[in-house]
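W.,

You were right to be curious about this one. When I first looked at the sequence I had no strong expectations either way, so I just let the prediction run and decided to look at it fresh. Below is the sequence, 262 residues in total, followed by the output.
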Amino acid sequence: MKKRAFTLIELLVVIAIIAVLMGILMPALRKVREQARQRSCGARLRQQVLAGTMYADDNNNILPRPTTMGGWMQDVAITVVHYMLDTGMTREMFYCPSNANHQKDNDLFWEFNNGTWDGKRFTNFNNGSFIVSGYLFITQMAPGLPERGDIIRYETDDMPKIWLEHNQHKHPAAREFIVDLTIGVNAPGTKFGFNFGQVPGGILARAGVYDRTSHLMSDFEPWGGNSGYLDGHVEWHHFDPQISQGGGNAIPRHQRGQNFFW
């Protein structure tokens, strides 16, 4: 009996079919994986909100605030970090699994100006020590430091956005407390006018790497972000610059050229 083998043309046809199927399936697979990261990120954010409000309950209702002149919204004082860890949080919960840079270069963020991390707590730190977290804390500066400027909005409604100071604000279900990191620098000619995937500045500039928005479709288009509210619930919002806040005078003067959206 003669053995019949595949011809070269038949093999090429099979390979072409597989390539077409992969081209169809890969975007869907990436979307499913990102949706899983969104849910995981939202769960981490919810834990931070709960730990932050517990901190306020034990500190005269005052929410965690930046305690240094830099005043970045990602900065969390080491004393607050220790409190949040004591509530059951872990180091990983301070960072979104969707943010590749925060996962790859995590030590740059977690161990910035903090003394020594022994695997459980920081030692040899001072009152000004902090971590650079993977989320934005929408809170006012600590007493004795310059207040933040007004939050710029792309639209006006009956619920103006504010920098939170305590856990007793009215309408807690509408007050963002901790939100996903969406950060961009001006990039004319792009879809929204910003580069969200390569953001220079701060701690990363000295290390030669970039900061980055979480949940990106591309460097120039965010997917959206989770928002944790003062009442403890978390919502997912698709990115829409017509309703998103941030940028301009909403950021401390030391964050020149960078815009934040939530």
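Here's what jumped out at me. Residues 34-260 form one domain. And, maybe more interesting for your project: Residues 8-57 form the longest helix (50 residues).

Coffee later to discuss?

I.
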